[in-house]
């Protein structure tokens, strides 16, 4: 039987993770009903689900059944949803549009949005800890991606850099923390769902994740210039309006596109020793770089 196309595979995984998230989130009958509604609003029915797709794709490298990857896939998406809520708050980027609809603090209120983000973060840890084969190392991987050495630290660097001139290395470090850390955790958590990996396999996946994570951000910077708010589902041109350094401001539009293409090649090269087991990860690298939203 021929393998499904990437489009068919990703659609099936999209439906799968939507169901997992639906079951993990508090329902309409929750005691704190407004908070539960905000959590569901920010998480369900939107987004590219890149991080869960990376979990499922990496789990195929180590021969895991998709069911064993569900908890890790849900955990990284819950963390991502939390980060978007907080990123959009007035004290951060103060944005009003996310995934084609009003941001959480606009749809509800700032205090509820803050609590929703906090609750999604703690729920992510609970879901991961209860999953198949979960252990302290998996929880540590997730925690490191979220905290001061990962997303939170990267967000602080982003705030500090607003209105200043950053070099390419400093900008790459910022985004390896703010965006890349959770992408790396998604890949490594997914691979942990199956058989034990050799050091070489782990290193290959780590190289892949770092290249793919940075490529994702470079393309985001390009789309912020070339895309529209309608196509992106978020405010276009935001980086320029806030005088933020981006790969486009540093390298130019053509230079940023070339950097994304080079990172795509790096991601593919990292996967070469893994053979066809890494097919979906390779296809995801293509998707991250060639997407238009």
Number of distinct beta strands: 2
* Range of strand content: under 5%
Question: Globular, elongated, flat, extended or rod-shaped: what is the shape?
Answer: globular
Order of helices and strands: HHHHEEHHHHHHHHHHH
Structural class: mainly alpha
Give the overall average pLDDT.
94
Label the CATH architecture.
Orthogonal Bundle
Tally of individual domains = 1
The poorly predicted ranges are none
Number of helical stretches of at least 4 residues:
15
Helical content band: over 70%
Largest sheet: 2 strands, antiparallel
| Cα radius of gyration in angstroms | 18 Å
| CATH topology name | Farnesyl Diphosphate Synthase
Name the CATH class: Mainly Alpha
Strand order of the largest sheet: 1-2
Q: Looking at this structure, what is the CATH superfamily? A: Farnesyl Diphosphate Synthase
Separation, N- and C-terminal Cα atoms: 33 Å
Description:
- The chain has helices spanning 6-24, 33-43, 50-61, 66-88, 104-107, 110-129, 136-146, 151-161, 168-178, 180-191, 199-226, 229-232, 238-241, 247-271, 279-290; strands at residues 97-98, 101-102.
- The protein has 293 residues and is mostly helical.
- The chain has a single domain, classed as Farnesyl Diphosphate Synthase, CATH 1.10.600.
- The chain has a two-stranded antiparallel sheet.
- Strand 1 and strand 2 form a beta hairpin.
- Helix 4 (66-88) packs antiparallel against helix 6.
- The chain is globular.
- The model has no long low-confidence stretch (mean pLDDT 94).
């Amino acid at each position: 039987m021929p393998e499904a196309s990437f489009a068919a595979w990703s659609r099936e995984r999209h439906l799968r993770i939507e169901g997992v998230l639906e079951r993990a989130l508090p329902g309409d009958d929750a005691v704190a009903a407004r908070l539960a509604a905000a959590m569901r609003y920010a998480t369900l029915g939107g987004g590219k689900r890149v991080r869960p797709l990376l979990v499922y794709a990496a789990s195929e490298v180590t021969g895991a059944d998709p069911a064993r990857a569900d908890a890790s896939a849900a955990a990284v998406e819950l963390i991502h949803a939390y980060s978007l809520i907080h990123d959009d708050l007035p004290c951060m980027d103060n944005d009003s549009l996310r995934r084609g609809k009003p941001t959480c603090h606009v749809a509800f209120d700032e205090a509820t949005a803050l609590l929703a983000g906090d609750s999604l973060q703690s729920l992510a840890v609970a879901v991961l800890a209860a999953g198949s084969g979960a252990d302290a190392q998996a929880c540590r991987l997730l925690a490191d991606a979220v905290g001061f050495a990962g997303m939170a630290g990267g967000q602080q660097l982003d705030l500090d850099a607003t209105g200043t001139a950053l070099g390419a290395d400093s900008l790459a470090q910022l985004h390896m923390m703010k965006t890349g850390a959770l992408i790396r955790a998604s890949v490594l958590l997914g691979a942990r769902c199956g058989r034990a990996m050799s050091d070489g396999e782990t290193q290959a996946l780590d190289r892949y994740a770092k290249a793919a994570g940075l490529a994702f951000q470079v393309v985001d910077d390009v789309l912020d210039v070339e895309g529209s708010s309608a196509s992106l589902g978020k405010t276009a041109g935001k980086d320029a309006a806030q005088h933020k350094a981006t790969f486009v401001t540093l390298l130019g539009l053509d230079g940023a596109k070339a950097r994304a293409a080079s990172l795509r090649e790096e991601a593919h090269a990292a996967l070469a020793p893994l053979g066809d087991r890494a097919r979906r990860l390779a296809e995801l690298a293509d998707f991250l770089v060639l997407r238009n939203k």
